[in-house]
Design goal:
This protein is mainly alpha-helical. The chain has one domain. The protein is built from 17 helices and five strands. It has a three-stranded antiparallel β-sheet with strand order 1-2-3. The protein has a two-stranded antiparallel sheet with strand order 4-5. A hairpin with a 6-residue loop joins strand 2 and strand 3. Helix 2 crosses helix 6 and helix 15 packs across helix 16. The longest helix has 25 residues. The relative contact order is 0.16.
Length: about 400
């Protein structure tokens, strides 16, 4: 028997399943529905299952820091209102809302996590990377480690060895910007590929109960708790598409339901499904809500009310994530049956398939969510009811 009583036969089966998928690209390799974990929005925990999210929270969770950011936004509200494009306005709001934190200010664990992402994720040299991954996970030492059931240790070794192999082939050309910019690991140039790349980061939002968090922290077979992986490749394009779609929606200021349904569309697809910034997404989108409502003549819309509404909107935003995943034939990433966190991060075939399907469904939601027959429309109407309390 393996550690925690897991049968060796089951581990061998999982190992064969994981390694046989290397280099294959098919829907069966993508977080199968069989492993889907039902969301419990009222109990979900919205932070990253890695040192990265914790590192950013150090600087942004303080009440005084939040208040200072909101005050900066309010002082610049006339300027923001004059910006014609929501995509540009949102970036400016984020720059004002967030504290003056740079990459160098982050804890070492967070910087290491970011650097690893910049070196490893979504690389253009797919064949070279896949060969390195195959050699690492198939080595006798790694196979022995896998058979112990210590997935946390296995994950750490895969990450460390991949980083060691990819680092000499990668020139880091830019550090990530934490203020007024989309979520990224920075920029790089990969040997053999002349173009510099800006590497966008997939946020990882834990969607587990407190009991699930406690269980995953004690069980070495569980790398991370059940989580939603957001979009990485194409984040900038989908962000622009969401903002452009929102800007193009007709505005009838005399029809409150229409006004707040439009705002709910943007809030629900933006804050958690897309989650375009490293930090302060809720505050940034809430501030944008105030800007939009005041421009439409709702002068009693206040930041305090918008922030409160944003918190009340969270369970519906969780359901929006669940609906996007279900319609994309995806699910939350879970380690309950096999180490899917490792695969979605480091297995090119699975990661590419996951990101492709996720992007397709997010773009479909952007195009159709406001239509009466859309599976997202009911959530938008529920969100509109909550947001109508703002003004």
């Amino acid at each position: 028997m393996a550690k925690f009583g897991r049968p060796i036969e089951a581990l061998r089966s999982t190992w064969q399943m994981a390694t046989s998928r290397l280099g294959r690209r098919n829907r069966a390799a993508v977080v199968p529905q069989a492993y889907q974990t039902p969301l419990e929005p009222e109990q979900s925990v919205g932070y990253a299952p890695s040192t990265l999210g914790m590192g950013l929270d150090i600087f942004s969770s303080d009440k005084a820091v939040k208040a200072q950011g909101i005050a900066r936004f309010q002082d610049h509200l006339p300027e923001i209102s004059s910006i014609g494009s929501t995509a540009n306005a949102l970036l400016r709001i984020h720059e004002l809302i967030t504290p003056d934190v740079t990459y160098a200010d982050l804890p070492e664990e967070a910087r290491s996590d970011m650097r690893s992402g910049l070196l490893l994720f979504d690389r253009p040299d797919t064949h070279r990377y896949t060969q390195a991954y195959r050699e690492i996970v198939s080595s006798p030492d790694m196979k022995d480690l896998f058979m112990t059931g210590n997935m946390k240790g296995f994950y750490a070794q895969v990450q460390a060895q991949l980083t060691e192999r990819m680092e000499p082939l990668t020139t880091i050309t830019g550090e990530p910007q934490l203020k007024g910019a989309l979520r990224s690991y920075g920029s790089r140039q990969v040997e053999g590929y002349p173009e510099e790349e800006h590497v966008f980061a997939a946020h990882t939002m834990v969607m587990a109960t407190e009991m699930g968090l406690a269980f995953s922290s004690m069980d070495s077979r569980i790398i991370f708790p059940d989580a939603y992986y957001g979009l990485s490749v194409g984040l900038d394009q989908v962000y622009q598409k969401l903002c452009d779609r929102y800007d193009s929606m007709p505005v009838n200021t005399t029809d409150r339901q229409s006004v707040f349904a439009r705002e709910a569309f943007f809030q629900l697809l933006g804050t958690r499904v897309l989650h375009p910034f490293w930090d302060a997404n809720g505050r940034t989108f809430a501030a944008q809500l105030v800007t939009s409502l005041q421009k439409q003549g709702y002068s009693d819309a206040t930041t305090d009310r918008a922030m409160q509404a944003s918190e009340e909107l969270a369970p519906i935003a969780d359901k929006m994530v669940e609906t996007v995943l279900r319609n994309a034939q995806l699910s939350l990433v879970t380690d309950r049956d096999q180490p899917l966190h490792l695969s979605v991060r480091f297995n090119v075939a699975m990661r590419n398939s996951y990101m492709t399907l996720l992007r397709q469904e997010i773009e479909h939601a952007i195009e159709t969510a406001d239509q009466p027959d859309s599976p997202y429309n009911k959530l938008i109407q529920q969100g509109a009811e909550i947001l109508s309390q703002v003004a």
